[in-house]
Design goal:
Blueprint (H helix, E strand, L loop, with lengths): L12 H4 L4 H5 L12 H6 L20 E2 L2 E2 L18 E7 L53 H5 L5 H12 L9 E6 L8 E7 L9 H5 L2 H10 L1 E7 L2 H4 L3 E4 L10 H9 L2 H12 L5 H10 L8 H5 L9 H10 L3 E9 H11 L3 E5 L1 E4 L4 E6 L8 H14 L7 E5 L5 H6 L2 E5 L3 H6 L2 E3 L6 H5 L4 H7 L4
Parallel strand pairs: 7-8, 7-12, 8-9, 12-13, 13-14
Antiparallel strand pairs: 1-2, 3-5, 3-6, 4-5, 10-11
GO biological process, one term: L-serine biosynthetic process
Cofactor: Mg(2+)
Keywords: Amino-acid biosynthesis, Hydrolase, Magnesium, Metal-binding, Serine biosynthesis
């Protein structure tokens, strides 16, 4: 007989578990063999009301919901974020008109006939400082990322969204539970544009919002899935802007006006080279403008009338401007080009303001003098930002309710100053430095950044 004063025996590990690991950890226990009759079962529950009689082997309600088992280390009741938790909206655009790999993917390419040849090898753009195959460094360039859109579909697929959410979870921030939701903005089946909302955002002490926008993991995700991601902090002013300001050349129109004028006098090459360097930020804008204007000396003053038939309004510009007008926006074009064409474009698109540079005209010969009007300010980067703020103040519009769109280095200051600044099909430097960038086929894509979907765009355009 054991001593009553001896300490109780501790259970051993072998006594605490069965011989089967799976049996110990399975979610659903096998039903116990039925060995009792109905009388014994009812007799065991005499202390309970018959109305509360329930299945003794029902699954744990805290673990099983609907048709699936919830695997989580958190209490499900604590999944709701506190009211007022900041949110970030990521608008994902599939680049259907600009594939990463221009050649047909090998998996879907047709078989070559006997008389056909494979295309000649080419050097990927940006991979080496020369196009001469003999001068390329012997070490091969870094491989392009796997074109996952070729494998999983040329649209924002479910796997693409899953990958994006995984990237959010791997950001260098303290672990925190993230709530996410998404909606397709253009179509439910095979969407090209998807809006993802997640909260809370990364802790700014570890990763600021500005750094998040340019995070390497997101850049790699864009390359792999052939998409573009625009991140915005969610607020009522994200969805309710009141002033839109646009650049003109290569934004609202596809042309560079000064290059078109240069064609008339045979100096297109010289002017185009200067324009390209100025738009990339390699030259002082004001100095380069004066240099280019100097080459236009002697051009007939009616050249602007002739150019109107040459200029091409960018795809989606009319639809975008008419939609914003229907929403009550004030709109302006601020251009480093020239006033006559800016005013013409404002009339075409229904813009409220048009401000550009003024060329001096020799009244005697009705030709351009090759100089700018000295009494008028040059519309450079600083002047565009000043005009943005003055137009907003004139209409009592907070700067957070402004939208700016441009493509050149002289647009960067106003892009950063606005509530939302979009670099549209911009030069390389501008894409790197702008708050957001888009390289779509139609300016209508900007409506998606305002929280509108395709149905809203159709209704605003008056098509129904």
């Amino acid at each position: 007989m054991a001593d009553s004063n001896s300490p109780p025996q501790r259970p051993s590990l072998g006594q605490m578990r069965s011989s089967s690991f799976l049996q110990d950890h399975q979610q659903y226990k096998p039903p116990a063999p039925i060995s009792a009759n109905i009388g014994e079962v009812l007799g065991a529950q005499l202390d309970e009301s018959l109305s509360t009689l329930s299945n003794p082997i029902k699954p744990d309600p805290e673990r099983v919901h609907d048709s699936g088992v919830i695997h989580s280390i958190f209490n499900h009741q604590a999944a709701q974020m506190p009211h007022g938790t900041p949110r970030i909206v990521a608008t994902i655009f599939y680049k259907s008109g600009n594939p990463v790999h221009p050649h047909i993917h090998p998996d879907v390419s047709p078989h070559l006939a006997g008389n056909q040849k494979l295309p000649s090898p080419s050097v990927p753009e940006g991979s080496a400082p020369t196009d001469d195959l003999e001068k390329i460094p012997r070490e091969p360039p870094a491989p392009e990322p796997e074109p996952l859109d070729h494998l999983y579909g040329p649209y924002v697929s479910q796997l693409c969204l899953t990958n994006f959410l995984q990237i959010l979870d791997t950001l260098p921030t303290p672990y925190q539970r993230t709530n996410t939701s998404h909606r397709c903005l253009d179509r439910e089946e095979h969407p090209r544009v998807v809006e993802v909302t997640f909260s809370p955002p990364p802790d700014p002490e570890y990763l600021s919002f500005e750094d998040l926008r340019k995070h390497e993991s997101i850049w790699r995700f864009e390359r792999e899935w052939n998409v573009e991601v625009v991140l915005q902090e969610e607020s009522v002013f994200r969805r309710h802007k009141r002033l839109a300001v646009f650049d003109m050349d290569s934004t609202l129109i596809e042309n560079e006006v000064i290059d078109e004028i240069a064609k008339f006098i045979g100096v297109e090459k010289e002017v185009s080279e200067i324009t390209e360097r100025a738009m990339n930020g390699e030259l002082d804008f004001a100095a380069s403008l004066k240099e280019r204007v100097g080459l236009l000396k002697g051009v007939p003053a009616d050249v602007f009338e002739k150019l109107k038939s040459v200029l091409t309004i960018s795809k989606g510009a009319r639809e975008l401007c008419s939609s914003l007008k229907a929403l009550g926006y004030k709109m302006a074009v601020l251009s480093g080009g020239f006033q006559p064409l800016a005013e013409w474009l404002a009339g075409e698109l229904g813009l409220d303001y048009a401000v550009a540079n003024h060329l001096e005209i020799d009244t005697a010969t009705q030709t351009l003098t090759g100089k700018l009007v000295e009494s008028k300010p040059i519309i450079d980067a600083a002047q565009k930002r000043t005009l943005l703020k003055s137009i907003a103040a004139e209409n009592n519009i907070p700067i957070s309710q402004t939208l700016t769109v441009g493509d050149g280095a002289n647009d960067l200051l106003m892009l950063h100053a606005a509530g939302l600044g979009v670099a549209w099909r911009a030069k390389s430097k501008v894409q790197l430095e702008a708050p957001t960038r888009l390289n779509g086929e139609s300016l209508v894509d900007i409506l998606y950044l305002l929280g509108l979907d395709s149905e809203d765009a159709i209704e605003l355009s008056g098509q129904r």
